[in-house]
Write a structure and sequence with these properties.
Largest sheet: 2 strands, antiparallel
Number of strands: 4
Oligomer: single chain
Helix content: 55-70%
Shape: flat
Strand order of the largest sheet: 1-2
């Protein structure tokens, strides 16, 4: 076969990396004859006509109508919040950082933190029990999850609060035999302990199903490859299976965690004055400030759940490193990139 002329230019690449064939350079040394150029007056006229045409996007009137309606509704809500004197924003500002409110907020954070940790640990154990080869562990785990998902949380809290009526003392010793150490139930089951235990028991039942779903989402080939390498089962779980399962566990469990933060408002009914309990107490003492106090509680709960959502974003981003080729930009990186682009455009405009 004959070789192509050496004077022909090889295909080049444009800015997108796609190979583009270039026309040979004109000149006697290149062997290019302009008489063979197919670009004539008629072709140039058609090209000019096509380039002069403007691309018109599809008309979507309903999108604009829906956008206008949403903006009007949002504007009315904001206008009502600002102009309605019934909200008493001056009283909201007075109560927002009061020590009594902050004390309740600290109790909410303490109860939510302990319940989240203990609930997740219990959920992991229950999920492993559901996936165990032991029929006893599978049955006990299933019954626990079924029971605590069926009983309302407020019933669990009230039951634990009145637990001393059933068992006045606890003892440690031989099972079904004599006890060596005995202590009163009321000395251990304080209001904080009752709240944490009740929320943890309830949370573990839901966290178990979240963890089990995440573990089942790991490809079976990962288990087979780890077993083929002769890795211990504990190492397989902690270093291979569980880190991959966290990609599916984190989003669902954070939803549970947000629900847990809001569920702490129920501990008011077991005589624990958390954020909602303090708001209720102050509302009873100052009946005219009920609405501002409820807005204070609402804003603080929004702040807490927003912080949890931010943590969720970065945890998901961390555990998606092996699943994505290019990590998406964080909001701060997007902001810095936008500022650099805006600064460059301003400099180009000023130089022109």
């Amino acid at each position: 076969m004959s070789e192509p002329p050496s004077s022909s230019s090889p295909p080049s690449s444009d800015s997108t990396g796609v190979a583009v064939a270039r026309a040979p350079a004109a000149g006697p040394e290149s062997g290019y004859d302009a008489r063979h150029d197919v670009t004539g007056p008629e072709t140039k006229g058609v090209a000019d006509e096509l380039s002069a045409q403007r691309v018109i996007g599809l008309r979507r009137p309903w999108r604009w109508i829906a956008t206008a309606i949403v903006l009007v509704v949002v504007a009315q809500i904001v206008h009502g919040l600002v102009t309605n004197p019934f909200y008493q924003w001056d009283r909201f500002q007075y109560w927002f950082l009061r020590p009594v409110i902050l004390d309740g907020l600290l109790i909410t954070l303490e109860v939510a933190a302990w319940s989240a940790v203990l609930g997740l640990l219990g959920g992991v154990l229950l999920a492993l029990g559901r996936l165990s080869r032991s029929p006893v562990l599978r049955a006990v785990s299933w019954v626990y999850i079924w029971l605590f998902r069926s009983v309302p949380l407020i019933v669990v809290l009230l039951f634990l609060y009145n637990f001393s009526a059933l068992y006045k003392t606890f003892s440690l010793g031989v099972p079904f035999g004599p006890g060596f150490i005995s202590f009163s139930e009321s000395s251990v089951a304080t209001d904080v302990v009752v709240a944490v235990v009740g929320l943890s028991l309830n949370e573990a039942a839901y966290a178990a199903e979240v963890v089990r779903a995440g573990l089942l989402s790991v490809d079976q080939g990962q288990h087979e490859a780890a077993s083929a390498l002769g890795l211990p089962r504990s190492y397989q779980f902690t270093r291979i299976v569980f880190p991959q399962a966290l990609r599916a566990i984190v989003p669902s469990y954070v939803n549970q965690l947000i629900g847990l933060v809001k569920s702490t408002s129920l501990v008011f009914y077991v005589s624990l004055f958390d954020l909602f309990g303090q708001v209720q107490s102050m509302g009873s003492t100052y009946p005219g400030d009920v609405v501002p106090l409820l807005i204070v509680a609402t804003v603080w709960y929004v702040v807490l759940t927003s912080v949890v959502s931010v943590i969720q974003y970065y945890v998901e981003r961390y555990y998606s490193r092996g699943a994505l080729r290019n990590m998406p930009l964080t909001p701060l990186q997007k902001l810095r990139t936008g500022l650099r682009t805006l600064r460059a455009r301003i400099e180009i405009g000023s130089a022109a």
